[in-house]
Write a structure and sequence with these properties.
about 350 residues; alpha+beta; seven-stranded antiparallel β-sheet; six-stranded antiparallel β-sheet; 7 helices; elongated
Length: about 350
């Protein structure tokens, strides 16, 4: 069995990332896109511009310097090299001082703390005050393992290993930036979870496929009013609805969606195994309406492979029943008449 493993340092060094706060769901952004030393860094919704792209340069001493894609040799910097709580975070021309050096601390949920060297790594880069307002400030504060102090590293270019590890790290848990829809009254969490994994792999928000926090009033969601109170998303939303996900992505993926019934997969595994399907792809289960694809009921994320030379199949991880690395063949045996739609990105 081959499954997602915890990414090593090589998965995030020398790469460009969008850096998303794991509480507010907004991104580390150079204010106004101004490429000038002293420009403030704040949080902002995803826009894909250079003001939100950061290059993680390994300094060779256990620290990283975060270069801005705006150029002018600008890097993330703690103002005045201060070790104080609430010291401002800005961009400044690279000078190699401790104010521009950070450790990337990992957690079990595949989110990261950006610890500052000027504080002897006792403080970190945070979104100030758990505020979800666009343009709210980012500064330095004592590390307490709170969600506002943690960040999701979303690669600018796809890295399916990061998406698969996000899935395996969070198959039975939740990240504060997203709603917890894991109950029958709201319809289940499977598509919301798959969307998060895709984002973590470097498939970025677009059109109606997005979600943002408005406030921290509700995280566990039991009705539409709670969802709309605390989160911004389209209606209907391909981020959380399995059926809308299909409608949105079938025309935006590399080859549309491969489809086969569970029985067809069991009778001839190569019907899917021979396709360019990899870790990081998505499989949905749909009703079979007299030989045609009906309503989509469930979304799953490919996190690995079972390949022992005889039994070749994919390993799937998903929410709603919080399942890790379940064999596609075993799922097909449970529901042989259902259709399985496979999306490649």
């Amino acid at each position: 069995m081959t499954r997602a493993v915890r990414p090593g340092q090589d998965h995030y060094e020398y790469k460009w990332f969008y850096i998303k706060n794991a509480c507010t769901g907004q991104y580390m952004d150079v204010s106004g896109g101004v490429a000038q030393a002293g420009t403030n860094v704040w949080q902002y919704k995803y826009n894909g511009t250079d003001s939100q792209k950061w290059y993680l340069n390994n300094n060779g001493d256990g620290t990283f310097t975060l270069y801005s894609a705006l150029g002018n040799n600008l890097v993330l910097d703690v103002a005045d090299a201060s070790s104080a709580n609430q010291a401002n975070v800005q961009v400044w021309e690279y000078n190699g001082t401790d104010a521009q050096k950070f450790k990337i601390g990992t957690t079990t949920k595949n989110v990261y703390a950006i610890l500052t060297k000027v504080s002897n790594y006792e403080k970190c880069v945070v979104t100030e005050g758990s505020n979800c307002t666009e343009g709210h400030n980012i500064n330095q504060y004592e590390f307490g393992n709170n969600w506002t102090e943690l960040w999701i590293l979303e690669p600018v270019e796809m890295d399916v290993d990061l998406g698969a590890y996000y899935a395996t790290a969070n198959y039975n848990s939740f990240v504060e930036a997203y709603p917890n829809l894991d109950n029958d009254s709201i319809g289940g969490d499977c598509t919301n979870f798959v969307s998060q994994c895709m984002l973590a792999s470097g498939i970025h928000s677009r059109d109606n496929w997005y979600i943002y926090r408005k406030n921290l009033n509700y995280t566990e969601i039991y009705n539409v009013n709670q969802l709309n109170n605390s989160f911004e998303l389209s209606d209907p939303s391909p981020w959380i609805s399995a059926e809308q996900f299909k409608e949105f992505w079938v025309s935006r993926t590399t080859n549309g969606a491969y489809k086969a019934t569970g029985q067809q997969i069991l009778d001839n595994p190569d019907v899917v195994w021979s396709k360019p399907i990899t870790q990081g792809c998505v499989i949905q289960k749909a009703d079979n309406w007299l030989g045609k694809v009906g309503t989509v009921r469930h979304s799953m994320y490919i996190t690995g492979y079972l390949n022992d030379g005889v039994d070749n199949t994919f390993l799937l991880t998903y929410h709603s029943t919080n399942t890790l690395d379940k064999s596609l063949k075993d799922i097909c045996r449970q529901d042989p008449d259902s259709y399985y739609l496979i999306y490649t990105f």
